Amino acid sequence: MTLETNRIAVGGNTRRRLGAGTSAVPIVLLLISLAVLLWASVRYGQRAQSAGQPDVVPRAVTPRGDLAADEQATIELFERCAPSVVYISPLVRTVRRTMFGYVEGGVVPSGTGSGFVWDATGHVVTNYHVIYGAEEVQVTLPDNSRYAADIIGVWPDNDLAVLRIAAPSEKLHPIIVGSSSDLRVGQKVFAIGNPYGLDFTLTTGVVSALNRAIRSPTGDAISGVIQTDAAINPGNSGGPLLDSAGRLIGINTSIYTQSGGSAGIGFAVPVDTVNAVVPQLIAHGKIVRPGLGVNLAADVIARRLRLEGALIVSVNAGSGAELAGLRPTLESNDGQIVLGDVIVAIDGKRTPDNRAVFDALREHQVGDTIKVTIDRNGQRQEVPVTLQAVDEQTRVMQRPR
Predict the structure, then answer these.
(1) Which residue in the list 114, 123, 129, 216 is annotated as catalytic?
(2) Do the Cβ atoms of 189 and 242 come closer than 8 Å?
(3) What angle do CA 400, 201, 134 make, to 5 degrees?
(4) Which of 84, 203, 332, 389 stands 20 to 30 A from 186 (CA)?
């Protein structure tokens, strides 16, 4: 028997009892040894893992150098012109159904669009179809300040609208206006807008074609339209198309697409049209168009009568048409219909229907004298007619786009 342990039999079991020489030091040493072994194994594993892999550190940055001249020009153009572009939110009032009936709710955005500041008094230009059907319109400036806009005037025939906001003049940066009559296919263009609500987006491209014709919201032709391959997506409508000098040359209005996205074929209403229409909308709230001073029969009637042109139904008293001797359709004493003159051409351009007549007149101004070719009793003759102001009521869009 030693001093460390004694074995004592108790109830058939054998127990080990610590003797007088037993100490807790070996247990502490054992724990320390285990801790050291654990630390060593971890360190060994880390070294083994990093033995075949270099330390991960950021790569050295290579200085870029100066931007290319065309890049600098594009950046400067965007920074100079973006303050003139605005974000337009057409708003409609919601209606919810309750157990007590229908109750009006708040106003919510019904779409997105773009526009640009026209002058320092707060006039903003956009597309008519952007605000069509809106009960309220909100304009957001580049500094994210928002203003309720008044609709000053619209002209659906050219898909144009003029708004006005009560913003401080120091926040307004009128766009620089250029010309569209001297554009050439291939020159650079830049579009700034809010595609899909992503405000102040710049896209670039070239003039793809000139003198295209597209249909306005009312179905009339907009002539002289600019075609571009600069990406124009929903939300770009109403935004400016700029030349490389940062001048406004068109207002982006539509795209040709089968998928709903940009297909590289966009259209812009030429600035020469915008510059002719916008001042009239600001001054009168409507367009004073040049006219002959006649009323035309519906095309379906002319077709039934097998007439190739626009049949004159009546001639306004004192009009250029009356002074030129154009004849209206009349009813004789015995009840017979005597057909009036049929307009078959204007300035040598065929006018097979009413729309062709209106399209031809749109290229002129009040006071211009045009050559009207008429068919009178089977005989054709050319008559000079001086155009007069026609106070038309604005026609609304046929359907939402």
Answers:
(1) 129
(2) yes
(3) 25
(4) 84
